[in-house]
# Entry
Amino acid sequence: MAPCDSSPIIVTPDGSRTAHSARFGETYGSRHGAFSQARHVFVEGTRTQQHPAPRVLEIGFGLGVNFRATLADAATRGAALEYVAYEFDPAPAPLLREVAAGEAGSDHPLWQALLQNWPHTPLQLESGNVRLTVHFADVLEATLPQGWATGLYLDGFSPTRNPEVWTPPFAARLAQALAPGGVLATYSAAGHVRRALEAAGLQVERRPGAPGKRECLRAVRAPDQLREP
Ligand SMILES: C[S@@+](CC[C@H](N)C(=O)[O-])C[C@H]1O[C@@H](n2cnc3c(N)ncnc32)[C@H](O)[C@@H]1O
# Structure
């Protein structure tokens, strides 16, 4: 469904919302089901829903749909969650609010605090056993945590529109950010993305995609693959 002239918001077939980015010329999440994509590709793709205390690193916080999907899952299970995200072009808070209205995770105190504080730098919030840090910075210039993430959501805009976050050197940096046994997930199944992740030493698996996509990728850092950065 195309965005209407006055609003970038798009209602997707699963009832969740996404929005169109004028800067990148594409939508933040899948037009075929924004929340379904977040849950299937990123939460389940990294097996975060099975982890007792996940530590998630996200490349591209965007509208926070992946974060809310992860938050809702952790809250339901009572699991502790640490979430660190990078975002160099924060969307306006009213857009985040409107996209999230009535959706999973939107009633959590941490999401409400996020809306109050967005986008003050650095955004560091804590509520119960959930901690969120959003760095409003270009991830290409950031010092990433080393050997830390149990789940890594690679969710920049597409390789065609935003090629810098899909290169082999950046994939190698992402691999170093994963804890041993950590899992990176992305919606792209492009051959060059798969090869970049493999060249970084990750074990790459093609999985069925979210609605509208045939395949997506999961890339695992084997426990014995931990190398000095
Ligand atoms: C596809 S959207 C992410 C959607 C988001 N994960 C969600 O759940 O709503 C991609 C996001 O990555 C951000 N981004 C792209 N390249 C980046 C970079 N080099 N550093 C930081 N953020 C970046 C964009 O500004 C955009 O918000």
About this structure: The domain at 33-225 is CATH 3.40.50.150 (Rossmann fold). The longest helix spans residues 65-77. The helical segments are 34-44, 65-77, 93-100, 109-117, 168-177, 191-199.
